[in-house]
Amino acid sequence: KGITKIAALDHAVDGRLKGMWICGENTLVTDPDVKHTTKALESLDFLVVQDMFLTDTAQKADVVFPAAAFTEVDGFFTNSDRRIQRIRKAADPPGEAKPDWWIIAEVAKRMESGVHFDYDSSREVFDELASVSPIYAGLDYDRIDSGELHWPVPDHDHPGTPVLHEGEFINGKGKLQLLDYVPPSENPDDEYPFYLTTGRRLPTYHTNTMTGRSKGFRILVPNEWLEIHPRDAEKLGFEDGDWARISSRRGDVTTRVAITRTSPSGTVFMSFAFPEETLTNNITNPDVDPITETPEFKVAAVAVERIEAPAGFSAEPTLRADPAIEDPRGG
């Protein structure tokens, strides 16, 4: 049995894990409790990062493999809708950038494991996937060339499964499971009286590694902000566009304030799309779900206080792309 990435970072800190190869993820920014993640990466004997850009994580690497973008490779995507889509190379990658599968295969060959990675194309990688994964068994490149399908596709005559469990559950019956409520590992108290929950904003994706390079997106969402309910803002003396320090048991960050009813009273919201300005995961909760070991990104106890605008910035109404939706309950 393998371990999760969160467990791997813990193992790096305590010395059980000596090396790490990170592909296409800005771990130093995406994971909770950035101080812990930084310590983990700096504790490794050897770090390899494979990415399109020299991200915060890549800057800590001993070796960086330049990866090609999706428009620069042949391959396929499977999204969270189970939709399998063919992608076709539209441009040559710059410099020494290569497809991810090629980089991995070439390293394997140099480690004398090439017999298991003897690929000449992404088609061969897909064929191997279909040969060992029942949900892809009925697929090949020619078939996904003619249109997208949804897995499972168990054989070549199967039309795909746009709706999973249509008509009945896969085991023929539905079973209701009653679960006990498990409270968050961290709740507000006198010192940290607010819940912080984090998420994404529509024009920005994850840590903004790619979308942050789009001038159009940066016009829509030029910076981070803290969403806070009018009632809480009034108690703390905030006007829209004021600056705030948000603190947790792990650290603090600063950003502008957006007064809105999209966040209920007692809860504040931030994204994690602007690490160069507001590294939100400095303050998020690293505790994990006992079953999935997923970090508790959505619940952290924080304190919020008004501060003066940092040097070079001003307090002004926050420019935001998300509409200030009124709470239908009138809160």
What would a concise description of this structure say?
With 331 residues, the chain is α/β, with parallel strands linked by helices.
What does this structure look like?
Helix 1 (5-13) packs across helix 3 (34-43). This protein has helices spanning 5-13, 27-30, 34-43, 100-110, 122-132, 141-145, 215-220, 230-236; strands at residues 19-23, 46-51, 63-66, 75-78, 83-87, 149-150, 194-199, 225-228, 243-247, 252-259, 267-271, 285-288, 295-296, 300-307. It has 2 domains: 5-150, Rossmann fold (3-Layer(aba) Sandwich); 194-307, Barwin-like endoglucanases (Beta Barrel), CATH 2.40.40. Helices cover 19% and strands 21% of the residues. By secondary structure, the chain is an alpha/beta fold. The chain has 8 helices and 14 strands.
Proportion of β residues? 15-25%
Order of helices and strands: HEHHEEEEHHHEEHEHEEEEEE
Counted by DSSP, the helix tally is 8
What is the CATH first-level class name of the largest domain? Alpha Beta
Summarize model confidence as the mean pLDDT.
89
Largest pleated sheet: 6 strands, mixed
CATH topology of the largest domain: Rossmann fold
Portion in helices:
10-25%
Going by helix content, strand content and strand pairing, the class is alpha/beta
Please give the domain count.
2
Strand order of the largest sheet: 8-10-9-14-7-11
Alpha carbon gap, first and last residue: 48 Å
Residue runs with pLDDT of under 50 for 5 or more positions? 323-330
Architecture of the largest domain in CATH?
3-Layer(aba) Sandwich
